[in-house]
Design goal:
Blueprint: H1 17-20, H2 27-49, H3 56-73, H4 76-80, H5 85-105, H6 108-115, H7 126-134, H8 137-142, H9 145-160, H10 163-169, H11 172-194, H12 205-228, H13 248-262, H14 265-296, H15 299-315
Length: 316
C-alpha cells in the first residue's frame, strides 16, 4: 500500500497523545482551514464596519469547528490514522459528527448572505449564485431526510465493509477525498436538524429530533459489530507496523468502542442545541404577540370579552 505523503508510516513509534498531536499538516486541509477562517473573518469584519452585530457565539462555534478539522488532519493523528484503526475512527467521528455541528452553529451561510454585496439589477454575483444554490432542486434533494439518513448510514457500512475503503486508503488523494466526504455527509445530515442557516428543509423541532435519532443507532450497531468481531474486518488495518507494538484485533475493538461512544455524544450536543433553539423560538413568538397587543390595544382580548358579555346578556 502506498502511504506516500503521510510521513514514514513504517517507522512510527508507539502511539501516545503527545506524539499524535505533533505537527504534520496535510496541505489540502491546511489551506482549506486557513481559507475558511479568512473568509469567515472577512464577513464578520465587513458586518462590524457597517455597524451590524454578529453574535460572538457563532464566531466561536465556527472557529472551533475549523480548528477541530485542523486537529484531525494537520497533526500526526493523520499519520497514525493511516495505520491504526482506532485513531482513524477518531478522525472519522470528529470530522463527520463534531466538526459539522460546530461549523453549522457558526451560521456561515447567513453570514455570507449578510456580508456579500448585491450584484445589482439583472446581474449575478456571489450572493445571487449562493441564493440560487440554496433554492435549487439539487439542494432540496441532498438535504432531504430520505437522502441524508441513508447516506449517513452507508458512509459506515458500505465503506468499511467493502473493498472501497482499502482502495481509498491506498493513496493520499483517496484519503483526503474520503475525509472530505465524511465532512460533507455530516454537514448535509445535521444542517436540516439543527443548522441556524436557511435551507430547503426546516421541519418542526419534534421532527428534527426524530431525524436525529433515526441515524444515531446505526453508529452504535456499527461500533458493536467491530467490538464483537473475532478477526480483523478491514484489510488496511490487518497488519499494523511492528514499531507500533499493537494487536490488530485489539485496535479494531478500540475503534468499535470509539464509534459506539460517538453515537451518543453528538446526539446529546445536538439535542441541547435543539432545545435551546426551541426555547428561543418560543420566546421570540411570545415577544411578537406582546408587541402586536401593544400596537392594537389587545383588541383580540377586548373582542373576546365583548363576546362573553353578549352571551351573558342573552342568558339573562
Amino acid at each position: 500500500m502506498d502511504h506516500s505523503g503521510h510521513g514514514m508510516m513504517m517507522d512510527l513509534p508507539p502511539f501516545t497523545l503527545g506524539r499524535g498531536l505533533g505537527w504534520s499538516a496535510d496541505p489540502f486541509f491546511l489551506i482549506a482551514c486557513l481559507v475558511g477562517l479568512a473568509l469567515y473573518g472577512w464577513g464578520v469584519v465587513r458586518l462590524t464596519r457597517r455597524g451590524d452585530k454578529w453574535p460572538v457565539g457563532r464566531t466561536v462555534g465556527f472557529v472551533t469547528g475549523v480548528l477541530s478539522i485542523g486537529l484531525m488532519m494537520c497533526t500526526r493523528l493523520n499519520d497514525y490514522g493511516m495505520v491504526m484503526f482506532s485513531v482513524h475512527m477518531v478522525q472519522h467521528m470528529v470530522i463527520s459528527m463534531v466538526s459539522p455541528i460546530l461549523l453549522l452553529l457558526g451560521a456561515p451561510i447567513t453570514l455570507a448572505l449578510r456580508a456579500l454585496p448585491t450584484a445589482g439589477r439583472g446581474r449575478k454575483g456571489p450572493r445571487e449564485l449562493l441564493l440560487m444554490l440554496l433554492h435549487s432542486r439539487y439542494m432540496r434533494i441532498v438535504t432531504h431526510p430520505a437522502f441524508t439518513i441513508p447516506l449517513f448510514i452507508a458512509s459506515l457500512y458500505a465503506l468499511y465493509f467493502t473493498p472501497l475503503f482499502d482502495s481509498l486508503m491506498g493513496s493520499r488523494v483517496g484519503h483526503v477525498g474520503m475525509m472530505v466526504h465524511f465532512l460533507a455527509v455530516g454537514l448535509v445530515f445535521f444542517w436540516p436538524i439543527m443548522g441556524v442557516d436557511p435551507g430547503p428543509h426546516r421541519p418542526g423541532y419534534l421532527m428534527r429530533m426524530l431525524e436525529l435519532f433515526a441515524g444515531m443507532p446505526f453508529h452504535a450497531f456499527f461500533g458493536i459489530a467491530l467490538m464483537m468481531a473475532s478477526s480483523p474486518m478491514v484489510e488496511t488495518f490487518k497488519n499494523p507496523p511492528a514499531s507500533l507494538g499493537i494487536d490488530a484485533l485489539s485496535d479494531q475493538n478500540a475503534a468499535g468502542g470509539i464509534a459506539w461512544a460517538f453515537s451518543e455524544v453528538p446526539s446529546v450536543l445536538v439535542l441541547l442545541a435543539l432545545v435551546a433553539q426551541w426555547y428561543a423560538s418560543d420566546q421570540r413568538q411570545a415577544r411578537r404577540i406582546d408587541r402586536a397587543a401593544d400596537r392594537d390595544g389587545d383588541k383580540e382580548l377586548e373582542a373576546y370579552n365583548a363576546y362573553l358579555a353578549s352571551l351573558n346578556a342573552r342568558s339573562s
